[in-house]
Amino acid sequence: MDLGIAGKTALVTGASIGIGRGIAVALAGEGVKLAVVARRRGLLEELEREIGTKLVIIEQDLLQEGAAEKIADAALRGLGSVEILVNNAGGSRRFTLESSEAQWEEALTLNFTRQRQLAHRLLPQMMARKWGRIINITGKSEPEGLNGAFAAKAAMHSWAKGLSREVGKHGITVNCVPPGRIDSEQIRRNYSPEFRKKESEEDIPVGEYGQPADIANLVCFLASPLARYITGTVVPVDGGLRRYQF
């Protein structure tokens, strides 16, 4: 299927490993011109060699002051425009009742504030072109306990829904994709092979962890003109892991 996005421009954050890397590879395969962001430049250069095409490489830590403005400006300089924004960067760690204000602030900055700032920085040029796609890689809504990322992802879902109602008239869609268990460096670091096998067999209806390409395939579709009538949605890609019905 021709998605009709060849020649479009995209910015993908957190593109050095895992889901973000998979999304970058898939978009490049569709002929999209890319700017990619991560903290580790070396991994982005490896990605560029793998894809075999010139990328706009942006080395940036999202927690640094003014990060969203620096990323947006670098992407616009390098690409000329950003028609597709994939907010993928983020991070999660369990909190306790004693977690500090600084820890909460960091989690909200990394998982919500920077994504919101980046989107709003890029919206004017999308609106001027009467076309744009904002796709947020978020997270599940079933917290086992306190976790700053869960609260931030819930904020992302609410913000994205509200934003979609404001910008739809400009030809811009805004959607969220919460992944389930996707095989990645972080997953393999945090969960033992025994845990992954047990969870796959007992909790995931399709019987296995997903791959970055499973997320990337949906992102490519949502980025395309074919998905023009899909906006304000939250579309899990989790092999049926979640138990709620909507």
Task: Furnish the topology, listing elements before pairings.
Elements: E1 9-13, H1 18-29, E2 33-38, H2 41-51, E3 56-59, H3 67-79, E4 84-87, H4 101-129, E5 132-137, H5 148-167, E6 172-177, H6 185-190, H7 193-202, H8 212-222
Parallel strand pairs: 1-2, 1-4, 2-3, 4-5, 5-6
Keywords for this structure?
246 residues; alpha/beta; single chain; 6 strands
What does this entry look like structurally?
It is a single chain. Helix 2 (41-51) links the parallel strand 2 and strand 3. With 246 residues, the chain is an alpha/beta fold. Helix 1 crosses helix 8, helix 3 packs parallel to helix 4 (101-129) and helix 4 packs parallel to helix 5. The chain starts with 8 loop residues before the first strand and ends in a 24-residue tail after the last helix. 46% of the residues lie in helices and 13% in strands. It contains 8 helices and 6 strands. Strands 3-2-1-4-5-6 form a 6-stranded parallel beta sheet, sandwiched between helices. The radius of gyration is 17 Å and the shape is globular.
